[in-house]
Amino acid sequence: MSTDKKKLVWPWIAAPAAIVAGLAAGHFWVSSPSTTLSAAATQALAADGMTPVNHVPAPNFHLVNQNGQPVSLSQFRGKAVVMTFLDPVCWWDCPIDAQEMVDMNHLLGPKLASRVALVAVVANPEYHSISDVQAFDKEHGLTHVKNWTYATSSSLSTLKTIWHQYFEYVNAPKYGMVQHTDVFWLISPNGQEEWLSDPSARTQYIGGTSQLLATYVAKMLHASLPPQTLKTSSLGHGIWQPMGLSYALSAQNLSQGWALYPYQGYRGLGHTVSGGSTWHFATPLGETERGGIEINSLNPSTAWLMIGAYGLQPDPMVRVTTNSGASWSTAWPVPGAIPPEAIHPLAATSSNSAWILANHKLLETQNQGQNWTTAASHAPWVKDETLSAQTAQSLWVTGMDKASHHVSIWHYTHGWHAVSVPVPTAWNGLGVVASAPEWSSSTDGGMALSVTIHGRQSVVWDATTNAGASWHLVSPTATITGNPAASVRADGNTVYALQKNGSQTQVISWQPGQTTWTPVGTPLPNQQAGVALAVPSSGILWVMSPDSPVPVVWTSTNNGATWVKSGAV
Q1: Which residue from 149, 183, 187, 136 is spatially nearest to 163, judged by alpha carbons?
Q2: What is the CATH number of the domain that holds 112?
Q3: Which of 485, 533, 540 is nearest to 506 (CA)?
Q4: Is residue 434 part of a domain?
């Protein structure tokens, strides 16, 4: 992928003062169309902007499309054109920009979309072959979009001329991805430049940006958008869904811990040495985080990082740190695909030893991932799969069987053994998911079982006192918020969870002998939402709350009586 290669450098190209000023400010001037904007489109307008330009003819070009056929801008005369510049090996903004154009297509409906051309021009001085653009189209589901054109040229000088004509800044640093300007040019059916937008390329605006583009395109066509039968929540489905959890917290002691969080459609990794009050960015450089990140922390200094496959990185990669993320070992590939929708497919027991589920096998490494051997030629393949290590000889796989929708738990000790666990009678036949067991000793442990009914997530706690030979349903049912793998935690015999009451997030707990879950302290201040929980020690709580652009962590040292807001993760 482009992050590993040396690049040619294309210097800054001159642009009109108005456009440079708009880019420097992070957005363009706002101008409203005659059609009323939706609430989501209004948010996108504030974030992206929409600048009226001088109605001059858009510079024509002669390139080839993704099929190797000649293409020019002038051939789209009579249609509205939405034009952008995309890097075919980009894993950051470009897939989001492309998806926004496709979603705009859906919002226009077949009749209006037939009067619109979606055009992208390559913005990479090194990767600009027809096979490069075809790979991008295939990867992001663009091959069947009828009005989609991805144009390129074998001549770099030809591309540079077009970049210059459209004021497209393209810079290829020695290391890292190509940097280029993210813009949407809206060109009228008579070939005039009409509008210019600077998309924020954040997944939170995907639906709004596509609605914003659709509204202005309809304006250029002197038409009205059709009644919207497409739900905003259905937009953005072409965007890659990373493996693992979106949010997660893990505490190694009272001061040190890790945080996983989404950042503009990707995954970031944070580390704290101050009890959650301050965090530093710990994601290794030079790796794509678009495929998702999983952290498997063993102690305050040692952790394994797994980076999911994405694009030109066809295999997952693993790295190890022994100094709290200050540096990471060489990235080594995992041979084979991991289970789809996996939450934690990696389990480690030391800085050298780890196991992973890949290609329906259990693989083992004893040298930080440099070499993998097959520990078991067959492995359970379940939904929301989690692999965890009780000891180096005792592994657990939990999740949900896709065919029966029954909870699925397997124990590995020189072979796989299915484990039966009790669930509430009312849950029989529903999609019950088991989270990874948590162990307080070599014999005592517990696991969360969860189910979603009518949009409400419920959880119970099962426990064992004989190293997992048998399990018992011990807690009552509680309604929780967030993924149980991130929002349910145990500290000894006490189980904690996040619960949402109205607009407030409350930590709740349960102990053996209790017939109900009870509130812990006070709700998070200012109606903050909670998405991940960690319990470093009895009475000490960390709760992650989503914020823009990155989340924050609320900490309490008095069992939730008072909360302190940390800096951004």
Answers
A1: 183
A2: 3.40.30.10
A3: 533
A4: no
497's enclosing H/E stretch is: strand 494-501
Structure tokens, 267: 């995954």
- pLDDT tens digits, residue range 365-411? 999 999 999 999 888 888 888 999 988 789 999 988 766 667 888 99
* Domain stop point among 201, 217, 234: 234
State the Cα–Cα distance between residues 432 and 367, nearest whole angstrom. Answer: 36
**In this structure, what DSSP letter does residue 22 have?**
H
Domain annotation covers residue 84: yes
pLDDT at residue 450 tops 70:
yes
In a domain, 394, yes or no: no
Residue 195 inside a domain? The answer is yes
Cα–Cα distance measured from residue 279 to residue 270, given in angstroms and rounded to the nearest whole number: 6
Number of CB atoms found within 10 A of residue 3's CB: 18
Q: Are 184 and 196 in contact (CB under 8 A)?
A: yes
| DSSP three-state, residue 103 | helix
DSSP string, 337-368: PPPTT-SB-EEESSSS-EEEEETTEEEEESST
Please tell me the distance from the alpha carbon of residue 567 to that of residue 118, in angstroms, as a whole number: 41
Kindly report each contact of residues 516-524 with a partner whose C-beta sits within 8 Å and lies 24 or more positions away, as own/partner.
Answer: 516/476, 517/475, 517/476, 517/478, 520/496, 520/559, 520/560, 521/556, 521/558, 521/559, 521/560, 521/561, 521/562, 522/560, 522/561, 522/562, 522/563, 524/554, 524/563
Residue range(s) defining the domain that contains residue 486: 482-503+515-569
Between CA 306 and CA 545 the distance in angstroms is 24
Q: State mean pLDDT over 445-471.
A: 91
Using a cut of 0.70, tell me whether the model's pTM lies above it: no
Q: Name, in order, each residue with C-beta under 8 angstroms of 464's C-beta and a sequence gap of 6 or more.
A: 437, 443, 444, 445, 446, 470, 471, 472
Report residue 203's pLDDT band, with 50, 70 and 90 as the boundaries.
low
Write phi, then psi, for 567 (nearest 5 degrees).
-75, 175
Q: For residue range 302-318, what is the model confidence (pLDDT) as tens digits?
A: 999 998 876 556 678 89
Last residue of a domain, one of 215, 234, 253: 234
Question: In angstroms, rounded to a whole number, what is the distance separating the alpha carbons of residues 436 and 342?
Answer: 12
Q: In this structure, are residues 554 and 566 in contact, taking their beta carbons and an 8 Å threshold?
A: yes
> How many structural domains is the chain composed of?
2
> How confident is the prediction for the chain on average, in pLDDT?
84
**Structure tokens belonging to residue 93:** 């903004």
C-beta of residue 510 within 8 angstroms of C-beta of residue 520: no
Least trusted range by pLDDT, from 37-41, 52-56, 182-186, 340-344: 37-41
167 close to 16: Cβ distance less than 8 angstroms: yes
Instruction: List all residues 6 or more positions away from 459 whose beta carbon is below 8 Å from its beta carbon.
Output: 448, 449, 450, 477, 478, 480, 484, 488, 497
Rounded to whole angstroms, the Cα distance separating 281 from 269 reads 6
